[in-house]
Design a protein that fits this description.
This protein has 368 residues and is α/β, with parallel strands linked by helices. It is built from 12 helices and 10 strands. 37% of the residues lie in helices and 15% in strands. The longest helix is centred in the C-terminal third of the chain and has 26 residues.
Length: 368
């Protein structure tokens, strides 16, 4: 990229923001996206409403009316899934680069510029960003969520993926490996990232491209997330048995609380400064999170939370407006007898040996 490039020299960037029932979150996100240093003439913001039942679409339309030509609203009403919503945004996008943020994420003013420059400097086609997790209310749930957060560098280096709450992808990648698996309730970012890595592309990380993802301060919201994480882990194994091999449901580790001698590692040096009551409160949240994830696994395994099937599409030329090629079909009823399977191959990295709750925090639904 030339020094101080004009808008004409920059790649056109489409920012896709999936959202469901989060009017305050989408307002905060859009406020940060319409005030970027990247030229408006070289970018667009596509809000994808996933069939919200509140005033969320009205908020998006209001911002779009104030910023015509920059912000627009599309809808995904057939499939209730953040990944299906992202796919709708990808199909509507005109950009050579497609960036993703979640509704409630606040991007730094130079986020787009920093991400695009990092892609150019590194020759990257897939780029994860720094995600800070501020805690607006000091609840135990919020403090736990802020501490476990989004260690994106570790995800990139050890897990071959970056979360979709702040991600840049070249359009050519979707044309080659396909879009997200819209049938997953969680973990679609992991599946997609590993598919990209398997295509021979390097997974990059740019800490200079920064966003803030507020911590979940409500215990209910945090536990609902990890129910989805657990369900997504079972779906991944069912749909991709050759690539995902989570712990079998008979593994007793799934039903035990976190290891009390290892739990403190989530908090680093701060742990030693906490009062005993604070340590107990945070440990209790960690135990509930683990049990919620296991509950999500059980619910998905026994058919309580099955997601609708959607294939993966290969994306055609920009602004074609349609699905170019269906490349995979899935049967969510196909069950590999997960409860009775062996644990399979031994993990090869520390990342792989962690539970989903410990390594992911990756259910990047619009209300994340």
């Amino acid at each position: 990229m030339p020094a101080n490039p004009s808008a004409a020299d920059r790649p056109f960037v489409s920012v896709v923001v999936p959202v469901y029932n989060d009017p305050d979150g989408i307002r905060a996100t859009l406020d940060s996206l319409v005030d970027q240093t990247y030229p408006e003439t070289a970018s667009e913001v596509i809000v994808v409403d996933n069939d919200s039942t509140d005033e969320t679409p009205a908020v998006a339309r209001s911002v779009a009316a104030d910023h015509p030509g920059l912000v627009r609203l599309v809808r995904e009403t057939e499939i209730q899934s953040s990944y299906a919503a992202r796919n709708a945004g990808v199909r509507a996008a005109s950009g050579d680069v497609i960036a993703f943020v979640d509704a409630d994420v606040v991007a730094d003013a130079d986020w787009l510029e920093a991400g695009v420059e990092a892609m150019g400097e590194r020759g990257a086609e897939y780029l994860g960003c720094r995600v800070d997790v501020p805690c607006p209310e000091p609840t135990f749930a919020g403090r736990y969520n802020a501490a476990t957060g989004f260690p994106v560098r570790r995800y990139v280096e050890e897990g071959s993926f970056a979360p979709t709450c702040a991600l840049f992808v070249a359009r050519a990648v979707f044309a080659d490996v396909g879009t997200f698996d819209g049938g997953l309730v969680s973990g679609g970012d992991v599946e997609f990232g590993r598919r990209v890595a398997a295509s021979g592309r390097k997974i990059h990380y740019a800490p200079e491209a920064r966003v803030e993802h507020p911590a979940r301060t409500s215990l209910r919201s945090l536990l609902e997330k990890y129910v989805r994480v657990g369900g997504g882990a079972v779906q991944q194994r069912r749909r991709y048995p050759d690539r995902f091999d989570p712990r079998p449901l008979y593994d007793p580790v799934l039903y035990l609380p976190p290891h009390p001698l290892r739990f403190h590692r989530n908090f680093g040096a701060e742990w030693d400064r906490l009062r005993r009551t604070e340590k107990l409160g945070l440990y209790a949240v960690g135990a509930l999170v683990k049990f919620a994830e296991t509950g999500g696994r059980l619910a998905e395994r026994f058919g309580v939370g099955s997601a609708p099937a959607e294939g993966i599409d290969r994306l055609g030329p920009a602004a074609t407006g349609g699905r170019a090629e269906r490349v995979a079909e899935f049967d969510p009823a196909a069950d590999a007898q997960l409860a009775g399977e062996s644990a399979g191959a031994e993990p090869t990295t520390e990342f792989e040996s962690m539970t989903d709750a410990e390594r992911a925090a990756n259910a990047t639904e619009p209300s994340d």
